[in-house]
């Protein structure tokens, strides 16, 4: 039995952002497609964050970055009705992208892969 261990505080921070996204649908009074879109993206962020606890790898950060981008674009593509919902989605997207990028830049496995890839390319 393995115990979950937080290797990067950014995963815990992303998990909190995901929880906020799920709750914000109700707190901010979203309606229609915005509710389900925000909940789905929040659950996705939570899933990637928990995956970072269970199977530590730098690969989930790329998924979080895509979800962050979707959060940034959602208010204008889905059509959020309130400024507070738009601000929440955009700010959450920025935070998710920043946390994922920060984790990538501080992850030993990723930086080792990056250095190896760029220093041992043919040509």
From TrEMBL:
InterPro entries in alphabetical order: SPW (IPR005530)
Membrane spanning stretches: 12-30, 36-55, 62-79, 85-105
Tagged with keyword Transmembrane: yes
Superkingdom of source: Bacteria
Ranges for domain SPW repeat-containing integral membrane: 9-100
Keywords per UniProt: Membrane, Transmembrane, Transmembrane helix
Protein name, as recorded: SPW repeat-containing integral membrane domain-containing protein
